[in-house]
Specification:
Layout lengths: L1 H18 L14 E4 L30 E5 L1 E3 L8 E3 L4 E6 L14 E3 L13 E4 L15 E5 L2 E3 L5 E2 L7 E2 L17 E4 L5 E5 L2 E3 L6 E7 L4 E5 L2 E6 L1 E7 L11 E5 L2 E6 L10 E5 L4 E5 L2 E5 L2 E5 L3 E5 L2 E3 L4 E5 L2 E3 L4 H4 L11 E2 L8 H8 L6 H5 L9 H7 L22 H5 L19
Parallel strand pairs: 1-2, 2-5, 3-6, 4-7, 5-8, 6-9, 7-12, 8-13, 9-14, 12-15, 13-16, 14-17, 15-18, 16-19, 17-20, 18-21, 19-22, 20-23, 21-24, 22-25, 23-26, 24-27, 26-29
Antiparallel strand pairs: 10-11, 27-28
Protein name: Right-handed parallel beta-helix repeat-containing protein
InterPro entries: Pectin_lyas_fold, Pectin_lyase_fold/virulence
Keywords: Signal
């Protein structure tokens, strides 16, 4: 009897190995080590708590699969101020520490800010770019498994952008060799492309002033992988605030990528450019994936709140506000929040609690005046689009807590993705609206 039990136990262990362990290839099964980075106290490449490195960019070539990187408060521009970090193995990055690496407060006392400079011939790649899908084992097979985490990082592309006449009111997408200026990077702030069976988490991050075609936060999960996008804040970006992507082609539900997207706030997402017909959605979801989408606040998309390109979504208690054309778009069908349950075909029948409301958004007054005074959106254009919560110039000003004006607002008509500072932006992401949207993370994970 004991012999039979022992044999059964061995069989069970083998079953667990071949069904779970086998999904993580030897290259990505590395135990990993802890690295420490501090702009203020770091030097060299030891990367220990006692002798941290000065910038993540300085140690990228030393990183191994499953390494954990802890980054203290400070402003980081990468190696040589190139403004972009590319990592090709699964790692876990945690920001928002104090200089002793004992406490974390990533949106307040100990901000870890990733940015750069606009200088001719600097990189225009994503500020944080983790791509593991091309890594291979010694036998030539692609590596699989592992976990990727980015948590507690603030990405501000404002200093990397090129602005018309250097006035910080309108970005330019072309370089200016004469003035030795780069184009505004046409890339997201946090972009992750995972391997098969790799799980990805982006949590407690802020992305602002980026000008991508796709997502300011973009997570692409492949076969057998899962994505968690939780308690993030995107504000003043082009493209999509958050983009859940897939690298899976097939119909097997057991290995189809699944996302949990919760408690995020995505505000003021612009179209690709002033006359573009694409971009401008707070969130977007690819086809060939499933997702639970709940407690998010999706507002002031220049096109809409959520663009579903074919995913199967369960949507609970999401807030939609001030989106110009629609709250929810499914392929080509546009609808308001209150109509999703009746009209959408890809929204799970148990979905509930999604609503359109007008809310107060406490961004900095300087930026609010610029946004409210732009000539792109009028009350008539919003009213003609669809029956969703909307504002005219005075209503928009009241949302920011500004005085209502009776006449036209005197502002430069050429305003597109005007620079918002970290201080101006964070005030709008510190608290949720009745549980919908992000909250300031304290001692965050």
């Amino acid at each position: 009897m004991k012999k039979q039990l022992k044999q059964s136990f061995i069989c069970l262990l083998l079953l667990v190995y071949f069904t779970v362990g086998a999904q993580t290839s030897p290259n990505f099964a590395n135990e990993g080590r802890d690295w420490y980075v501090s702009k203020n106290t770091g030097s060299g490449k030891l990367g220990t708590k006692e002798r941290p490195a000065k910038d993540l960019g300085n140690i990228i070539h030393l990183l191994k699969p499953n390494d954990r990187i802890h980054i203290a408060e400070g402003i980081y521009m990468s190696k040589g101020k190139r403004g972009a970090d590319e990592i090709n193995v699964p790692v876990q990055i945690y920001g928002g520490y104090d200089v002793t690496f004992t406490t974390r407060d990533p949106w307040d006392a100990h901000k870890t800010i990733f940015t750069g400079v606009n200088e001719y011939m600097k990189l225009t790649d994503p500020r944080i770019y983790i791509r593991t899908d091309q890594q291979r084992e010694s036998n030539g097979q692609k590596s699989t498994g592992g976990n990727i985490v980015v948590a507690g990082i603030i990405v501000d592309n404002g200093p990397r952008n090129r602005y018309h006449k250097n006035e910080n009111l309108a970005i330019r997408r072309k370089a200016s060799p004469a003035s030795q200026q780069n184009p505004s990077p046409e890339s997201g702030g946090i972009v992750i492309v995972a391997s098969h069976y790799t799980n990805v988490t982006v949590q407690n991050c802020v992305v602002m002033n980026t000008a991508p075609t796709e997502g300011a936060i973009s997570v692409r999960v492949f076969k057998g992988g899962k994505g968690v996008i939780k308690n993030n804040f995107t504000i003043n970006n082009t493209g999509y605030g958050i983009h859940a992507r897939t690298g899976y082609v097939g119909s097997d539900d057991s290995v189809m990528p699944h996302f949990t997207v919760s408690n995020n706030t995505c505000l003021f997402t612009w179209k690709h450019d002033a006359i573009a017909s694409y971009g401008g959605d707070a969130m977007a979801f690819d086809s060939n994936l499933t997702a639970d989408v709940f407690n998010n606040a999706l507002g002031y998309g220049h096109m809409g709140g959520l663009y579903n390109k074919g995913a199967k979504l369960k949507m609970m208690n999401n807030l939609f506000t001030g989106n110009a054309k629609y709250d929810y778009k499914e392929i080509n069908a546009k609808m308001a929040a209150e109509d999703m349950i009746d009209e959408a075909t890809l929204v799970h029948e148990e979905s509930d609690g999604n609503q359109g409301l007008l809310i107060s958004i406490p961004v900095g007054e300087r930026w609010a005046k610029i946004y409210a005074g732009r000539d792109i959106i009028t009350r008539e254009e919003v009213d003609a689009a669809v029956s969703v919560p909307n504002t005219g110039a005075n209503q928009l000003r009241s949302i920011f807590g500004l005085n209502v004006q009776g006449g036209e607002v005197a502002m430069d008509a050429e305003v597109f993705l005007p620079l918002i500072t970290v201080e101006e932006a964070l005030s709008a992401g510190r608290y949720a609206w009745n549980g919908m949207g992000c909250n300031i993370p304290k001692q965050a994970q």
